[in-house]
Amino acid sequence: MYPFIFNNESFMFDIIGDIHGHADELIALLGELGYSQRDGIYGHSERKVIFLGDFVDRGPKIREALEIVRGMIETDAALTVMGNHELNAMAFHMPHPDRPGEYVRPHTPKNEKQHGQTLIQLSDSQLSDALTWFRTLPMWLELDGLRAVHACWDDAEIGQIANQLQKSGGLTDEVLAAACLPDGALFASIEVVLKGKEMQLPQGYSFQDKDGHERTKTRTRWFLAAAGHTFGSYAMTDELDCDIPLSDDVRRASRPYGETEKPVFLGHYWLKQATPKRLARNVACVDYSVAKGGFLCAYRWDGEQELCDENFVYVR
């Protein structure tokens, strides 16, 4: 799962967002992008896919989605990064190191519901095989000319994770526990990279997330400088109406993504716009809520350092 630097060779990339078991939409999108099947594996003569994780949970064809994705990765037709749902799945099935009978990710009704379709659709052997494969997935990709990560590119947090993975020889049980338990040494870094940065909302403010849960914290537009923003404009959601200027602690914690940095591609954020658009000149999210009535989305990257809205490709 490391090294994290790859040689692009002569290929350009199609970056595909969160699939969540929607295999039919994935097949349609691959067709729209010009990929075809050979010996049951999708590929392209001049391009490769980068998947941004979150293959499991929620959708109707999780097994089929995993088969397509793994087939492409194992034949070098695609690269991938890990999503937070792959991390959550590993933690859900890993016994807690200090509490017999409990798990690293608690089996609460909320967590069981989120993971439920994966439990229903995969046999025990298929699930075990998938969990073993998830441990091999990188958490980010650093390529010639672009970067890919599920939720947030932060050099400091990525460095913390990389050091621990290299020291431990991979995603061992100890590292997984340190990444997923709130008192673990890697918990804060993993939360940022795979789930995004959050800020506490002012007292009295909240919003409902995609699953109808009331939230008093929200994910941020971490790639932007915080100066001049309100809580509403800096939140990575359109559900929050709050014109209060950002607090000093939020502004001090801001580490915006530099305008001269490589383009970075994200999933994770369940965007709802009818037409995909870049988030900044060098930042694009390709998660448009296929598992919540949206569409599966890709960005067709041809080496440009300033991203173009016209390069998004999607199927409804």
Automatic annotation (TrEMBL):
<dbReference type="Pfam" id="PF00149">
    <property type="entry name" value="Metallophos"/>
</dbReference>
<dbReference type="GO" id="GO:0005737">
    <property type="term" value="C:cytoplasm"/>
</dbReference>
<keyword id="KW-0378">Hydrolase</keyword>
<protein>
    <submittedName>
        <fullName>Bis(5'-nucleosyl)-tetraphosphatase PrpE [asymmetrical]</fullName>
        <ecNumber>3.6.1.17</ecNumber>
    </submittedName>
</protein>
<dbReference type="InterPro" id="IPR029052">
    <property type="entry name" value="Metallo-depent_PP-like"/>
</dbReference>
<dbReference type="GO" id="GO:0016791">
    <property type="term" value="F:phosphatase activity"/>
</dbReference>
<feature type="domain" description="Calcineurin-like phosphoesterase">
    <location>
        <begin position="13"/>
        <end position="111"/>
    </location>
</feature>
<dbReference type="GO" id="GO:0004081">
    <property type="term" value="F:bis(5'-nucleosyl)-tetraphosphatase (asymmetrical) activity"/>
</dbReference>
<dbReference type="InterPro" id="IPR004843">
    <property type="entry name" value="Calcineurin-like_PHP"/>
</dbReference>
<dbReference type="InterPro" id="IPR050126">
    <property type="entry name" value="Ap4A_hydrolase"/>
</dbReference>
